[in-house]
Amino acid sequence: MVVCDGGCSRQDLGTTMHVMSTMDLARAEREDLLALLESLSPQQWQHPSLCRGWRVHDVVAHVLSYDELSPLGLLRRFAAGRFTTDRTNAVGLAAYRDRSPEELVDLLRAHLTPSGLPAGLGGRIGLTDALIHHQDIRRPLGLPRHIPAGRVTTALQTALFAPVVRGILRVWDVRLIATDVDWSFGRGPEVRGPAESLLMTVAGRRGVLGQLSGPGLTRLTRRGTT
Fold first, then answer.
1. Positive or negative CA dihedral for 135, 138, 141, 142?
2. pTM for the structure as a whole
3. On the CB side of 83, how many CA atoms lie within 13 Å of its CA?
4. All structural domains of the chain
5. Contact between residue 192 and residue 214 where contact means Cβ atoms under 8 Å apart
6. For residue 82, with 0-12 CB atoms within 10 Å meaning exposed, 13-18 middle and 19 or more buried, which class applies?
7. Quick one: average pLDDT of 201-211?
8. Mean pLDDT across the stretch 159-172?
9. What distances in angstroms separate CA 88 from CA 72, 82, 91, 116, 223, one per listed residue?
10. Contact between 225 and 207 (Cβ < 8 Å)
């Protein structure tokens, strides 16, 4: 069966019953991201993303800015960013944002299997980062898609506890229940919705609460979670 922390559908299993590791899931997500990027127009590359102040081009540059770093290079990157997430990401973005869309696409093609920091936790970092940022691009462009259950549930579990995302701090007192896959988490009044919308809420993205329902939604709204 597919390796995932929630329920997995037959569609995830395919016809070969291939066992997918989290690294396999990360590569599959990057393959889907590559297909999207290859289809974008120059205007779409310049479109604002869900990441405040970042264009689609900037999001792609960020996603790829850690793959080429050695452990020493990663340490230097964090030191240059004073060991804070936002500053460290800004250092990486500055190093990659001048690359053309074609250069970024070629770089992604060369790193479909994550390397460097994104390969951490067996590929969970690469999967979660790519999936969230993939949606950061698609949502503003009005390009919905189906995300296989194994990918989104694994990303949800990772985003809740990953030090950078710290999603648990946003949803600690509610019970999240996905309505399209077999996944739930937490205790408290329920918040229901598509798994992708729950993931974007956990990741702190704005404009998502309208896609969720349940008595726990008032807590997230009062807190200004998204």
1. negative
2. 0.89
3. 1
4. 10-141 (1.20.120.450), 166-223 (no CATH)
5. yes
6. exposed
7. 94
8. 94
9. 14, 7, 5, 15, 27
10. no
127 pLDDT exceeds 90? yes
Percentage of residues in the chain having pLDDT higher than 90: 86
Tokens 């297909």 — which residue?
35
pLDDT at position 35 is: 98
Euclidean distance between CA atoms 207 and 109, whole angstroms: 31
Least Cα distance to 113 among 11, 34, 3, 1 occurs for 34
Digit-coded pLDDT (tens) for 75-103: 999 999 999 999 999 999 999 999 999 99
* CA–CA dist 188, 136 (Å, integer): 28
DSSP-assigned letters across all residues of the chain: ----SS---HHHHTTTTPPPPHHHHHHHHHHHHHHHHHH--HHHHTSB-SSTT-BHHHHHHHHHTTTT--HHHHHHHHHHTTT-HHHHHHHHHHHHTTS-HHHHHHHHHHTSS--SGGGGGGGHHHHHHHHHHHHHHHHHHT------HHHHHHHHHHHHH-TTT-THHHHTTSEEEESSSS-EE-SSSEEEE-HHHHHHHHTT-SS-GGG-BSTTHHHHHHHT--
Q: Which residue has the tokens 């016809």?
A: 15
Beta bridge partners of 158: none
State the Cα angle at 134 between 133 and 138, rounded to 5°.
Answer: 115
Give the chain's length: 226
